[in-house]
Design goal:
The complex is a heteropentamer of chains A (about 500), B (about 270), C (about 80), D (about 130) and E (about 500). Chain A is built from 20 helices and three strands. By secondary structure, chain A is mainly alpha-helical. Chain A has a three-stranded mixed β-sheet. In chain A, β2 and β3 form a beta hairpin. The relative contact order of chain D is 0.12. The chains are: A mainly alpha (about 500), B mainly alpha (about 270), C mainly alpha (about 80), D mainly alpha (about 130), E mainly alpha (about 500). Chains in contact: A-E, B-C, B-D, B-E, C-D, D-E. The interface between C and D is large, with 43 and 49 residues.
Chain lengths: ~500, ~270, ~80, ~130, ~500
């Protein structure tokens, strides 16, 4: 394995920050959106150009500046980060397209602000993906929190204010109150914060302290919405749909989970976790979240809220997978980052498209909508298959590995959790699809004039749904990245 | 409040008293304070500056930098009183005049102020005639007071006194006039603008001499380097440098005392004063 | 320096100080304060600090008192304590 | 016992100085009238000046102005009082009179607005605003 | 000329102050340019001085050419050079940024105002550079007296606040003077280095202990250290805009510098920590200061007053860091002097430009300001993030050192207080941001009270403000450099062993 010095990661992060002045100064909407696209394309190309290097088993490193002696602001591109960056960068393009359709279609106000903060959020996301140490990760994590605040509260009404308040309370409160002290304790114990393949905490602290740190980190990264710090996610649903999509699939929650995965593998190391028997604790925390979130999702009528609770559950799959500490489980968890992203973004796009075309938010009002919006609901169907974990979608692959992981780790309880929650997700998704396509006679709620949403809002979900299917048949690139990452962290 | 005050005071007093136990005895010639730096000043000051009053030598030369800021503090005080109290003249104010010969008071409502003449004198509403004896005595006294002030400044090298005390005395002479006559008379002799410019000129003289020393190649306030333009030896140059800064201090202190008095006694209106 | 004289004046100074803070008229306070300053000046002269004494005489007992009186004239003589 | 007496008598100057200091401090804290506080402050300052001047004292020495001609042939430092505290206190007096002037100016400005110098009355006015 | 830098930094603004006050009576329009020139020269020279100190380690200067225990000497090491640079550069920026405020608030006395402004800077730079204990007192009084006058220039409650500040400040100054007197009576010297060499043989004398305590109390009063902070919020809050943004960032920080200087150079860390064992109680008091400042800030309804209480809290940061008793904490404290000055300036400048347009700083009046003054509000957010301690702003890094120092010293109460105040700051600032982001909900119903159109502040305010807020991030990123090149060498010489 070689380490290559290159400024590319920094540029990939900065692309979308650099485009901000252009966005602000552009008076014409077309030009403004053109810049957004250009930045998204450049970013994706940059990320992809690093892919072969990573696939050859190398790493790219760039040190920006040494903020504190021993802890620099430093980027490192490795397999896991690459996986996440690929997902985020490619979905940004699709989301941009969707945003244009959505925002113009609904004639939203302050579109420039929207695009600016969208770009900033993406910078932060890539920054998290490429960060080489805890400090850099924390930096971009906070940046993301702040950049998404104006997005979440885009409507600037009372509801948005309440949601924004909740969002910040949860996210900033936990990151300052829990992550920051935990990080400083780590630094104090070891003098470094650099992610290492087997963690850097080994031998530096006893079981009790390590346990406290673990809890601080898992709950501190509240973006991962591990219960009981999940309350912000359903509240944040007041945001425009592309933002929800961004929050749920591309940036925020995934960043949270990604951070936890990084902490578990890069700070603690699987060996230390196994030695202290922390795997079970992590899995238990995750399982509770999975089951409870799925049950709550069952009772939701608002489509976006239901998706939000579904997300909360699905995220904990990833944590569960890593918590199993077996190679297959970790593989499954990491793969789920990508698979869930594509599946969930499809669902959100669909929800947005339905809202645009019909103005409906509640599931109970969507009876028979499949007849009117076949493409959208088709995509919705594929997306929900992926989330449930059924073939022929990518979701199946990750879930398959998770199940194998539980077997490998000999944790039958968690196998049951996985299966049970799959059934639950089937239980909350399938009725939606069923009623959309097969309404009870005479109860279809839509007149003939309702049709598909504009093309820019329909194409993205269709594309992402298609990608989900493709990922079932050809998961190779992601799979290779994940197996490299697993090999790197020395999962036996 | 009184109880709290008492408690704090008693506590602080007890601490202070406790700490005196390690002091050298009062007036002990062998105490560190009496021997360490003091010995140097007493033995060397005269040969290095040729000023017999060691206090002046230390004040204006060894610790001349302190004294410059001391003058700065005074300057701040003058400026401070000015900015805090001085009211800008409002145009549409009523004004009162008195016909000197008859004592009739004129009340003029318009903004227009008649030309100054010897027949009319501007007064306030609350006007009481000044006592002739006091007025005359003070007017006669003022030049002597001023002369004494100048002597104190000039003779600071050899006797107690110096720029600061002399300046105060000079300022006091003007204040005396302002009290015994009225403030308009005093301001007529030395206007507000003059006072303020004098205030700046005095300290500027001090710091200017210091800066001049830098230009002549010495350190700041190193009067020895003035010997080049004064055509004397270094010791004499120091002595003259001390005189120069004392004059500067005197000017500033005088001007500041007058400013503070003017603003305080007239509530910033610079009218008739007390 | 005569220590008996020194002690006597010191005690007078303290008496003057207590008087200054207890008197219920600000003009009286000003005059007493002037006396206090003058006593202080004497004290310093006895201790050999002639320059300081000179300064105190001109500033503390002289100009300060004038300022004080001027300020009292521009405000009020009344005080509750 | 005699030890204590010696200590007491040997430093009585400092003791009385401390008492003066405390009178000033008490006036500053406990008095209600702004001008009275100001006077207290001045007493506090002068007492510190007294303290410094006391430091400079030397038994059996004279004022620190050299006798005529004494400077030319060696000065016996024990004959003269330490000049440094005097120098410092000249500065301190100047500082205290400057502070006094500015404080009076501020007091007049306060009086302009509140028409009183009693702190409690001013606070009452501010509270009712 | 280069070896005269230390003197010139102080003397040039002094000369210009006198010139300005004289020129004001002849030609008013010259005052501002002259002030700019004087301040700019001083700032430029202090940057040069910092450069020299960074390479040579120590620059000495003797006033009047006299050797140090007899004359007054400047003894400029890393700490002075760093702080003096902050003081002069920030004062320069503030001077430019607040010009319009000055024109508006004190139109007639601009000359005197600028003269006092320069004298205030003279006082601060002198305090920072001097190596003489009594000279420090004189300059302290220069700075204090000018600040009383400047604060008293304001309207409304300002004179009363200034008078209160004067009383308290003078007591502080007197206590310091008393402390110096105690030192003088014991050592016979006033030069810091000289005193430091004479002191070790009498560390156990009660007089020296009292000297230290009096200096501590005096400086503590002047820096508004809890519970001696009562004067600060009123004095800074009611001051004229240009004065608030000058004094608030600089005065308290310079006083913290004085304290650190006293600990490091005069009394030595051995005395303060090993013999007196003052570390623990002071850290606890600092923690209390942090918590109290944060809680009081929560109760404020005025932006500027809120900032004032945040300063009280920040003083606790620095004091706590200095008293932790290890190099990390001291590094944090010194770094925080630097960083906090910049952040506070940023906040007060924002308050200044908001006041310039909105004419009020009550929180309700900030409604909808994000859309009207986006740049100013963006800078406010930058300052807020720094106060909260979000990377990569500089506030994060000093907090980092402070917390690490706290962990190292085992002072978990202090660490908890720091985290608590961070969280409270989040609440404080997001309350402000929320109000200004959302605007009036009732506006939609059509009876908006917006008679005057509020718009973005003029460029002369915005540009300095932007420079300061970018500075927040740049300084944050170069923290490593500052620590390695300036603070570590200092602590290597005078800091804690091991």
């Amino acid at each position: 394995m070689e380490t290559i010095q290159s400024i590319k990661p920094l540029i990939a992060v900065l692309v979308s920050i650099c485009v901000v002045p252009l966005l602000v100064l552009c008076k014409k909407p077309n030009l403004r959106e053109g810049w957004t696209f250009a930045a998204a394309a450049v970013k994706l190309l940059l990320v992809l150009s690093m892919l072969p290097v990573i696939l050859n088993g190398n790493q790219i490193v760039y040190t920006l500046v040494e903020g504190v002696p021993g802890v620099a602001i430093k980027f490192r591109v490795d397999a896991l980060g690459m996986l996440f960056a690929c997902v985020a960068a490619s979905l940004w393009i699709i989301t941009s397209a969707y945003s244009i359709g959505y925002m113009r279609g609904l004639k939203e106000h302050s579109q420039t602000r929207y695009y600016v903060f969208f770009a900033l959020a993406l910078s932060a996301t890539i920054g998290v993906a490429f960060s080489a140490n805890l400090l850099t990760l924390y930096l971009f994590y906070e940046m993301l929190s702040l950049a998404t605040y104006p997005l979440v509260t885009h409507h600037q009404d009372r509801e948005a204010r309440a949601a924004g308040r909740k969002y910040l309370t949860y996210i900033l409160g936990t990151s300052i109150g829990l992550v920051l002290p935990a990080m400083l304790v780590c630094y104090h114990l070891t003098g470094t914060l650099e992610f290492a393949s087997q963690g850097f905490l080994a031998g530096a602290c006893n079981r009790g302290l390590a346990g406290v740190l673990l809890v601080f980190f898992i709950f501190g990264f509240a973006k991962a919405a591990v219960m009981p710090f999940h309350g912000w996610l359903p509240a944040a649903m007041v945001a425009p749909t592309p933002v929800s999509a961004l929050l749920h699939a591309v940036a925020v929650v995934t960043v949270g989970v990604f951070s936890i995965v990084r902490i578990l593998t890069g700070v603690f190391g699987t060996e230390l976790l196994g030695q202290f028997d922390f795997g079970v604790i992590i899995c238990a925390i995750a399982s509770v979240t999975i089951i409870v979130a799925s049950l709550i999702a069952l009772s939701q009528d608002n489509l976006k809220r239901m998706l939000a609770f579904s997300t909360i559950g699905q995220l904990s799959y990833i944590i569960l997978g890593v918590g199993l500490l077996s190679p297959k489980g970790i593989t499954g968890g990491m793969l789920h980052i990508a698979m869930h992203a594509f599946g969930k973004i499809t669902l959100f796009f669909c929800a947005g498209a339905i809202f645009m075309a019909t103005g409906k938010r509640n599931i109970s009002e969507m009876v028979g909508i499949g007849r009117r919006m076949p493409w959208t609901m088709g995509a919705f169907f594929v997306g929900s298959l992926s989330i449930i974990g059924l073939p022929p979608t990518g979701g199946f692959i990750s879930k398959w590995y998770l199940v194998l992981g539980t077997l490998e780790a000999n944790q039958m309880t968690f196998l049951l959790v996985l299966l049970g929650s799959s059934l639950l997700s089937a239980a909350y998704f399938m009725p939606v699809v069923y009623r959309a396509f097969f309404p009870p006679p005479g109860k279809a709620m839509f007149e003939n004039k309702v049709g598909e949403a504009p093309i820019l809002c329909v194409a993205p979900p269709v594309i992402t749904a298609f990608i989900s299917v493709v990922l079932f048949f050809y998961p190779e690139p992601f799979f290779r990245l994940v197996s490299m990452a697993v090999r790197f962290i020395g999962g036996n | 409040m009184k109880a709290i005050g008492l408690i704090i005071v008693v506590l602080a007093g007890a601490l202070l008293l406790y700490s005196t136990q390690d002091f050298p005895f009062w007036g002990d010639p062998a105490s560190p304070a009496g021997t360490h730096t003091a010995t140097y000043y007493l033995t060397k000051a005269f040969e290095e500056t040729s000023v017999p009053n060691v206090v002046t030598a230390v004040l204006a030369d060894y610790r001349g930098f302190d004294t410059m800021f001391e003058t700065g503090v005074i300057f701040c005080a003058g400026l401070g009183c000015f900015v805090l109290l001085r009211l800008s003249r409002s145009r549409d104010e009523d004004s009162y005049y008195r016909h000197v010969a008859t004592g009739i008071t004129l009340h003029i409502k318009s903004a227009k102020i008649p030309d100054v003449s010897s027949e009319f004198e501007r007064i306030d509403t609350l006007w009481t005639p000044y006592d002739l004896i006091v007025k005359t005595v003070c007017r006669l006294l003022a030049p002597f007071v001023q002369l004494f002030g100048l002597y104190v400044i000039a003779h600071g090298h050899h006797s107690p006194g110096g720029g600061f005390q002399g300046g105060v005395i000079l300022g006091a002479s003007v204040i005396l006039i302002a009290i015994s006559h009225n403030m308009r008379t005093a301001i007529g002799r030395i206007s507000e603008k003059t006072i303020h410019i004098l205030m700046a000129v005095g300290v500027l003289l001090y710091s200017g001499i210091g800066a001049l020393c830098i230009l002549l190649g010495g350190n700041f306030l190193d009067y020895a380097s003035l010997s080049r333009i004064l055509f004397t030896n270094e010791i004499e140059a120091r002595s003259l440098g001390i005189l120069g800064v004392e004059v500067g201090v005197g000017i500033t202190v005088m001007a500041v005392m007058i400013t503070i008095y003017n603003n305080l006694s007239s509530d910033g209106r610079l009218d008739e004063g007390l | 320096m005569i220590w008996e004289l020194d002690l006597a004046i010191l005690i007078l100074v303290i008496v003057a100080a207590i008087g200054v803070i207890q008197v219920k008229d600000l003009l009286g306070c000003a005059i007493l304060f002037s006396a206090y300053s003058f006593l202080m000046c004497l004290l310093w002269a006895i201790m050999g600090a002639v320059d300081v004494a000179f300064t105190e005489a001109s500033v503390g007992a002289g100009v300060s008192t004038v300022f004080f009186v001027a300020a009292v004239f521009r405000t009020t003589r009344r005080t509750k304590d | 016992m005699s030890d204590l007496v010696v200590t007491l008598l040997g430093k009585y100057n400092y003791w009385l100085c401390v008492i003066l200091m405390m009178i000033g401090l008490y006036a500053m804290i406990a008095k209600n009238n702004l001008i009275k506080k100001l006077v207290g402050m001045n007493i506090f300052q002068t007492s510190i000046i007294l303290f410094y001047v006391s430091i400079g004292c030397k038994k059996g020495a004279t004022i620190s102005i050299l006798e005529h001609g004494a400077g030319h042939h060696g000065v016996d430092p024990t004959h003269y009082i330490n000049p440094l505290p005097h120098v410092l206190m000249l500065t301190a007096i100047v500082v205290s009179v400057s502070t006094f002037g500015v404080a009076l100016a501020l007091a007049i400005k306060v009086y302009r607005k509140h028409k009183t110098l009693e702190e409690d009355e001013i606070l009452m006015q501010l509270r009712s605003e | 000329m280069t070896n005269h830098y230390p003197a010139l930094i102080v003397v040039l603004p002094l000369l210009f102050a006198f010139v300005v006050s004289g020129v004001a009576w002849v030609k008013k329009s010259l005052c501002f340019p002259l002030t700019i020139v004087g301040m700019g020269l001083s700032a430029g020279l202090s940057v040069c001085l910092l450069g020299r100190v960074a390479t040579t380690g120590l620059v000495e200067y003797r006033m009047g050419g006299w050797e140090t225990p007899w004359g007054i000497g400047y003894h400029v090491d890393y700490l002075n050079a760093l702080v003096v640079t902050v003081v002069t550069v920030l004062a320069f920026i503030n001077l430019i940024a607040t010009r319009k405020n000055v024109v508006e608030e004190t139109p007639e006395k601009a000359g005197a105002f600028y003269s006092l402004y320069l004298l205030f800077i003279v006082g601060l730079t002198g305090i920072v550079l001097t190596g003489d204990l009594f000279n420090l007192y004189v300059l302290l009084e220069v700075a204090s007296l000018t600040s009383y006058a400047l604060i008293g220039m304001g309207n409304g409650r300002a004179p009363m606040s200034a008078l209160n500040y004067l009383f308290v400040g003078t007591v502080g100054g007197c206590f310091y003077l008393l402390g110096v007197g105690y030192l003088y009576i014991m050592t016979g010297s006033l030069n810091m280095v000289d005193v430091a060499t004479l002191l070790p043989q009498m560390y156990h004398s009660s007089a020296v202990v009292m000297a230290f305590i009096f200096c501590l109390v005096g400086v503590g009063i002047k820096m508004a250290f809890f519970p001696l902070h009562m004067w600060l919020p009123n004095a800074y809050g009611f001051a004229p805009t240009a004065v608030g943004s000058l004094i608030a960032p600089l005065m308290t920080k310079v006083m913290v510098y004085v304290l650190i200087r006293l600990i490091l150079t005069v009394f030595s860390v051995d005395f303060a920590f090993v013999i007196l064992k003052m570390g623990d109680p002071m850290v606890w008091l600092s923690s209390l200061a942090i918590v109290a400042g944060a809680v009081f800030a929560l109760a404020q309804k005025n932006l500027k007053r809120m900032f004032c209480y945040i300063i009280v809290s920040e003083i606790g940061y620095m004091m706590g860091g200095a008293w932790l008793g290890n190099n990390t904490g001291m590094t944090g404290a010194i770094l925080h002097i630097f960083n906090d000055a910049i952040m506070t300036l940023c906040l007060f400048l924002c308050a200044g430009s908001i006041y310039y347009r909105v004419r009020g700083l009550e929180l309700d009046r900030l409604k909808g300001l994000f859309s009207k003054m986006p740049v100013t509000m963006a800078c406010l957010v930058a300052g807020a993030l720094s106060i909260i301690g979000v990377p990569p702003t500089c506030g994060f890094f000093s907090k980092w050192y402070l917390i690490s120092g706290g962990l190292e010293a085992g002072q978990y109460g202090f660490v908890a207080a720091l985290l608590f105040s961070s969280l409270v700051n989040v609440v404080l600032f997001f309350r402000v941001i929320e109000i200004s982001y959302y605007g009036d909900f009732e506006d939609h119903h059509g009876h908006g009270s917006s008679g005057e159109a509020v718009m973005e502040a003029p460029a002369s305010m915005l540009v300095p403000l932007l420079i300061v807020s970018i500075g927040l991030i740049v300084v944050g990123l170069y923290t490593g450099g500052i620590v390695n090149h300036l603070i570590n060498p200092l602590l290597l010489k005078q800091g804690f062993l091991g």
